[in-house]
Amino acid sequence: MDKLKELDELLANLRTEASNSVSSSADSSRKTSTASRKTSTASSTTTPDPRASLAELNKLVASLPADATKPAEPTYEVIDPADCDKEEPVYAEPRLEGAYAQPSTEAEHPYSLPLAPPAVPPVAKQDSLASLEGNSTLQSLLQTLGGLSHGGAAPEENIYTQPFAPQQLKEVPVGTKPVQQPDGICAACHEAIVGASLAALDMEFHPAHFMCFECGKDISEAVYFENEGVPFCERCFHNKFSPRCGQCNDPIADEFVVAVGKQFHVSCFSCEQCNKVLDNGAGFVEHEGQAFCQRCYDAKVAEKCAACSAPIVEGAIQALDSSWHEQCFVCTVCKRPFPDGEFLDHGGKPFCAGCYHQQAGAVCAYCNQGIVGQCIVALGKRWHREHFRCTFCLQQLHNGTVMEHHGKPYCAACHVKEFG
Q: Which is higher by pLDDT, 402 or 39?
C-alpha cells in the first residue's frame, strides 16, 4: 500500500514539473525563427523530449485495466505542442467526472493537463509498479525533469519549509518574584521570549510564566492583582491583603461596613440579638463592642427607669443605685423636681425635705418643719435645738430639768409658778 501511494504522488509530481518545463520551452520557441526551431528539433535526438516521455507515460498508465468498483476515470484532451505554432492555439479544459469532479478553471498555459492523477486500479497495481520501475523511458524522463527543474544540481533545502519547533520554556518555581529585564527578556525566567509575549506590571513575560506569586495559578488571561510589583490571583490577593470580616472572618473583597471598631461584609453586619441585617441606613446602638437594633437594645440591654420602667436611651440620671429619666426623677410625694439637685432618701426613694420629714417623722414639734441634722428628742417628740423652749417664758431648754404639762415643755420655775 505504501508503494502504491508513492506511485500516485510520483505521477502527480511528474505532471506538474513537465507542465512547467514545457510551458517555458513553448514560450521561447514561439519567439525564435523557423531556422532555430529546426535546429532545436535536430539536436533533440540526443536528449529525450519530456513532452514525448510524458505522453508515453500517460499511455502506459491509461493501458492499465480499470477496476469496476472505482469511479469513472476523468476525461481530458492532450494537445500536441506542435499545434501551438498556429495563430490561434486551442485551449482545452479538463473534464472530470465521478469522484474527481472539480469546478473548471481557466487554463494558465496552452497545454492542458489533468487536474488530478488517474487512479491506478488495485487489481493490476503490483504488476504495473514492477513494469514502471524497469521502464527505461520513465527513468530518462525522471533524469530530464530533474535537469530542467534544478539545472542538473540537487535542490537546495529550503529552511522556511522546516516545521517550527516550539520554544522550550524553563520551569519557574512558585513564589518567584519577577525582576525587570531588558526588552524581549522574560521577567520570570530571565530568558529570551520567542513568539508571543505578555506585557504586565511594566515588564514582559512568557504567557505561561505570568502566574500567581502565592499559588502558581496561570493568570495570563484572568483578572490579577498587584502588590509591590508582584502579581496575585484574586483569591490569593484577598486572602493575604484584604481586611477580615468581624463576623465571619472571611476576607472582604468589595463594599464593607465599619462599626464598633471592626469591618464587616454588608450582609454580615447584623443585630447581635435578633440577627437582623443592619443595612440600608438602619440605625444601631453599640453596647460593650456589640451592635444592636433599637428594638433589641431597648428590650434586652438598655437600662430601665426606676420610676416608669421604660428603657433609657439617653440623659439618664444615676441616683439611689438606679437609673432615672430626667423628667422622672422628682419627689416621691409631691412630684416636684429637685432644682438644686438635693434630695433625701427614704426607703430607696427620693423625697424633698418637707415630704421626707413628714414621712419619716423628723418634724419639729414647735415649727412643724422638717429637721435636718441634729435634733432634740423629748416628750416623745423631735425638736429643732433652737425651738426646744419653755412654753411660758420661751427660754431655751438646753440643760436642766424639763417639766411637762399636757405635752408642752416648761422650765422648773415656770412650772411651779403656774401649776404649783
A: 402
Specify whether the CB–CB gap between 313 and 323 falls below 8 A. no
**Residue whose grid cell is 439637685:** 341
The DSSP code for 64 is S
Residue 29: is it exposed, middle or buried by C-beta count within 10 angstroms (0-12/13-18/19+)? middle
Tell me the pTM. 0.40
In whole angstroms, what is the distance from residue 340 CA to residue 357 CA?
A: 18
Instruction: Compute the radius of gyration of the chain from its Cα atoms.
Output: 61
Task: Give the distance, in angstroms, between the CA of residue 212 and the centroid of all CA atoms in the same chain.
Answer: 13
Element (H, E) at 144: helix 136-150
Angstrom CA distances, 87 to 19, 23, 107, stand at 21, 17, 18
Of how many residues is the chain composed?
A: 420
DSSP H or E stretch at residue 341: none
Instruction: Give the cell for residue 144.
Output: 530530464
Q: What is the pLDDT of residues 202-240, one digit of tens each?
A: 999 999 999 999 999 999 999 999 999 999 999 999 999
Max Cα–Cα distance, the chain, nearest Å: 197
Residue 387 near residue 364 (C-beta atoms within 8 A):
yes
Give the lowest-confidence range in 1-15, 25-39, 396-410.
25-39
396 pLDDT above the threshold of 80: yes
